[in-house]
């Protein structure tokens, strides 16, 4: 049997939490700005309008709806749409600070980016979720139009309104998130454990080791699991 499962689960929770909200640990002195996407080329001729695009990462998958002409609609946590109506500012690459504040304030933006900016150098799967929904797949044009209608500021919730909820609503008519369900099971396992206090301390210490002492990154990492527990 596995010994002392809580520290391992807490470490997994921290890493998965960061990735689910698209936060990447940054080195000291980076100023909170994400590194530029690695140079890459995507053959968009194989994509059709209304396709559901998936970009697998280490512990999460990012989702978007292809709109044609090298454009992808996708949902990201972002505080900026709540602060300004300047589309040029909003359309700039979302920094970690903007993203984390979006998570905390439950604000997001459904934005349109190029395939390169959306995929960030990762591999792309096309309509990989269709097999899970069988006869529920909507027409490609209907999926694209749904995505286009939703572009703009929106509420954000890791549990109820993330990038996976957005694309499944557009393509299948039902907002669901399989990866969030798995994540929540991990959170509940830790919180329900009689050693949850120890787990919380480990999450905090791990966040400090990974991200440094900056409260803008450490505090949200510690508190978000408890917000999830309260929401569930």
UniProtKB/TrEMBL annotation:
GO terms for biological process: retinol metabolic process; visual perception; vitamin A metabolic process. Pathway: Cofactor metabolism; retinol metabolism. The active site is at 163 (acyl-thioester intermediate). Residues 52-179 form the LRAT domain. PROSITE patterns: LRAT (PS51934). GO terms for cellular component: endoplasmic reticulum membrane; late endosome; perinuclear region of cytoplasm; rough endoplasmic reticulum. GO terms for molecular function: phosphatidylcholine-retinol O-acyltransferase activity. Residues 1-28 form the signal peptide. It catalyses: 1,2-didodecanoyl-sn-glycero-3-phosphocholine + all-trans-retinol--[retinol-binding protein] = 2-dodecanoyl-sn-glycero-3-phosphocholine + all-trans-retinyl dodecanoate + apo--[retinol-binding protein]; 1,2-dioctanoyl-sn-glycero-3-phosphocholine + all-trans-retinol--[retinol-binding protein] = 2-octanoyl-sn-glycero-3-phosphocholine + all-trans-retinyl octanoate + apo--[retinol-binding protein]; 1,2-dihexadecanoyl-sn-glycero-3-phosphocholine + all-trans-retinol = all-trans-retinyl hexadecanoate + 2-hexadecanoyl-sn-glycero-3-phosphocholine; all-trans-retinol--[retinol-binding protein] + a 1,2-diacyl-sn-glycero-3-phosphocholine = apo--[retinol-binding protein] + an all-trans-retinyl ester + a 2-acyl-sn-glycero-3-phosphocholine. Keywords: Acyltransferase, Cytoplasm, Endoplasmic reticulum, Endosome, Lipid metabolism, Membrane, Sensory transduction, Signal, Transferase, Transmembrane, Transmembrane helix, Vision. The chain crosses the membrane at residues 197-230. It comes from the Eukaryota. It is a single-pass membrane protein. Transfers the acyl group from the sn-1 position of phosphatidylcholine to all-trans retinol, producing all-trans retinyl esters. Retinyl esters are storage forms of vitamin A. LRAT plays a critical role in vision. It provides the all-trans retinyl ester substrates for the isomerohydrolase which processes the esters into 11-cis-retinol in the retinal pigment epithelium; due to a membrane-associated alcohol dehydrogenase, 11 cis-retinol is oxidized and converted into 11-cis-retinaldehyde which is the chromophore for rhodopsin and the cone photopigments. Belongs to the H-rev107 family. This is Lecithin retinol acyltransferase. The lineage of its organism: Eukaryota, Metazoa, Chordata, Craniata, Vertebrata.
């Amino acid at each position: 049997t596995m010994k002392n499962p809580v520290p391992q689960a807490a470490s997994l929770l921290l890493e998965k939490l960061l990735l689910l909200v698209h936060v990447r640990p940054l080195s000291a002195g980076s100023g909170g700005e994400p590194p530029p996407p690695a140079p890459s080329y995507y053959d968009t001729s194989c994509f059709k309008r209304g396709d559901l695009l998936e970009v697998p990462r280490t512990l999460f998958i990012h989702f978007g709806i292809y709109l044609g002409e090298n454009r992808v609609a996708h949902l990201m946590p972002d505080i900026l749409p709540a602060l300004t109506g300047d589309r040029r500012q909003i359309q700039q690459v979302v920094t970690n600070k903007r993203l984390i504040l979006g998570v905390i304030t439950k604000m997001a933006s459904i934005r349109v980016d190029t395939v390169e900016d959306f995929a960030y150098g990762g591999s792309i799967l096309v309509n990989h979720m269709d097999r899970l929904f069988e006869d529920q797949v909507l027409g490609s044009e209907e999926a694209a139009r749904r995505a286009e209608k939703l572009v703009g500021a929106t509420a954000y919730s890791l549990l109820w309104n993330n990038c996976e909820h957005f694309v499944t609503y557009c393509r299948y008519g039902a907002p669901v998130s399989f990866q969030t369900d798995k994540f929540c099971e991990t959170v509940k396992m830790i919180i329900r454990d009689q050693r949850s206090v120890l787990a919380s301390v480990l999450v905090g210490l791990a966040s400090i080791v990974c991200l440094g002492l900056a409260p803008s990154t450490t505090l949200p990492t510690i508190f978000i699991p408890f917000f999830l527990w309260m929401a569930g």
